[in-house]
Automatic annotation (TrEMBL), chain A:
Superkingdom in the source lineage: Bacteria
Species name: Paenibacillus silagei
Protein name as annotated: ABC transporter permease
Chain ranges passing through the membrane: 54-74, 94-114, 134-157, 169-190, 202-224, 230-252, 332-353, 359-376, 412-434, 446-471, 483-502, 508-529
UniProt keyword terms in alphabetical order: Membrane, Transmembrane, Transmembrane helix
Record's keyword annotation contains Flavoprotein: no
From TrEMBL, chain B:
UniProt keyword Nucleotide-binding, yes or no: yes
PROSITE patterns per UniProt: ABC_TRANSPORTER_1, ABC_TRANSPORTER_2
CDD domains: ABC_DR_subfamily_A
Organism listed in the record: Paenibacillus silagei
ABC transporter domain mapped to chain residues: 3-230
Keyword Transport tagged: yes
GO molecular function: ATP binding
Annotated coiled-coil segments of the chain: none
Protein name: ABC-2 type transport system ATP-binding protein
Keywords (A to Z) from UniProt: ATP-binding, Nucleotide-binding, Transport
InterPro entries: AAA+_ATPase (IPR003593), ABC_transporter-like_ATP-bd (IPR003439), ABC_transporter-like_CS (IPR017871), ABC_Transporter_VariousFunc (IPR051782), P-loop_NTPase (IPR027417)
Amino acid sequence: MIRTLKAILEVRGMSGANRLMFYIRKLPVLGKLIPASVYSETTLKRTLSVIVHILKVLMAFVTKFAYLGIMIYLPVKFIGNDISLSLSVQYQLYLQMLLCISFLTAGVSSAVILEPKRDKYIFVKLMRLPAERYMRTTLTLRGISFLVTFIPAMLVFGSLLGAPLWHGAVLTLLLTFWRTACEALHLWVFDRYGMVIVKKTSWIWTAIGAGYLLAYLPLLPGYAVVESGMLFNLPVVLGVLVLGTLSAVYIARYKDYTNAVDAVTKIDDPLLDMGRMMKEARVKDVATQDQHYSAEQQNQEKFEGKSGYAYLNAIFFSRHRRLITSPIQRRLVIIGSLFAAALLTMLLSQSAFTKLTHYLITALPTFLIIMNYTSIGERLCKAMFYNCDLSLLRYGFYREQSAILSNFRIRLLRISLLNLIPAAAICLAVNLLLVLSAESWGAGDAVLFCVTIVALSLFFSVHHLFMYYIFQPYSTELNVKNPFFTIVNSVVLGVGFIAMQFKSEPGMFAVIVVLSAVVYMLAALIMVYRFSGRTFRVK
Amino acid sequence: MELILDNIRKSFDGREVLKGIDFTFEQGKIYGLLGRNGAGKTSLFNCLSGEIQMDSGGAFLRRDEVSLPLLEEEIGYVFSLPILPDFLTGYEFVKFYMDINKGKIQADRTIEEYFDIIRFEEADRHRLIKGYSHGMKNKIQMLCFIISRPPLILLDEPLTSFDVVVALEIKKLLREMKQDHIIIFSTHILQLAADLCDELVILNNGTLREIPAETLHSPEFEEQIIALLKDEDHD
């Protein structure tokens, strides 16, 4: 077993080292300094693979802290402080959530014994390691590392909630043995019924949904059923330990691992290759759909009078109608339901409604962020890239300055008009609410508000399209590739957050927004004309 | 008209793929660019078409003793994997292409007539390109340069995936067109090159070399080419 373990760790370490080098070579400046020949430096790779192992171990500890901290401890603390619960009730809630998520949900959804995994495919199928040896070794490793890496986080968060240290240790032990029993159950179900539970997507999501609802719903009113006495008593602890041990014996003695591995390492299983699955999902998200074409075939005449880029874009926007209308509909539904919720608040509690409308008036800069997410520009740019530009950019005529500019202008107009729909809905909803409220809201205020929203909507229409033309961040797989794209985008959002901090005069804010929208639009037209010839390419 | 390649160099990741390409291609001939997998055929085409930047050197078009740098719009490039926008029908794409190149084309033919030239089925013209076969897409790409008549036509591994009928049609088409153009097509299939080309050029070890025309139809043609390709590997 030790020899197998060594071999597995060595291969994992090497492929980890390769991956590390691959990503380092992708870094903007540093990457250029490293030649491709680095992959053949075996000594360097050995060092790197040691580093990779250390990083992995550290990560294992960190993720346990992150998981317990973010998913359980912080929500408990947040609610606990909000409705001032005593520390012992908070600990009860903590245990209750841990039971729901780590014991119940994860027991169903996170079992590894029948998990489709590249690692399994590589060792058992490609390298011909006997399935039994591979499974026994990796499962032992997994069990031990699960126990060891959970202990510190359990001790820390438990004692932060006033529990004695031994609670944390026993809890980790219970969790490890309980999860071992779950693994055995998964294996037993497979052996008996030939069923792989982790591949039953609907079951998994039901377990996740139910577990998280059970965990978080009682948290809101601070309702704790579980008491530490229910977990930390001899019969329960002994029961779980015995169950876990028996399960471990079952797993260790299980004969037919070849079958269990075969069932989850089919070469075309999308779960084996997360990268490919995500790529396909991303592309499918924005792909042209045949049925739209056949539905629209009858009214060909609407493209009749158009020519050149106007013709191209008219067809593009018409044939991707669902891609365009569904996000707009979604936004309208959200705006509508928020509006309805606000009306409901008005009927139920006048004081809450007053608070809300007051916030609407003072929080105009918040719309900087909201309008960024209201704009459908980014999604449209993706669709344009994948369905249209990816192929046409291979042609010289499509990359000519004048062609790029006229295409840009047509698209800008289209996107701006589309974005005006949710913008108009927001203007309408907010103004209606304010008119119904006790706030003094004159025609001047209303106009100022609408102008700001419309200008913001224009600003982000230009922004997304401009970013696309100047940085062309997408590769053929549609993941954002260009680091500058992310940087500039974050800067714009950052400016939004800073603007939120200033409670500026609405008039002043409107002027600034209108000016920046106009300046951005002009600058974008000029820069796209000057630079897109070089930047707007398939990379 | 001549296409002059002057000392074109290109490296990827420190590996020099094109090591100073010097060559002159003449109008009215079909050139076969022969090379083994990975020899740099597609890289050379991509450099010429502006798809990727060359590290140094240049390409020039000489007409009546005047040489000017080769422009992107003077090139018709048929990719080995035909790339066309899926959301248009063949008809719409050709109409769009004609609109865009309005100033440059002779307006003596209608779209339908152009489709007739490449023998494209009536019913297929109004189907989405998404459902086209490889051969149909390639035909559409060929139609692009029949319409815009660029002086230089590059074909990257064409015909290899066509069925015999389509391959024959395209071959005929190329022969009919060659008078007014410089046509270069890359391939690693010897028979195809010998069959269709007037001249044969070998890309090996990053340089171009011409094969004497008389070799082309000699019985020892195959052995000679193989010997050449192998020899230079061990230089």
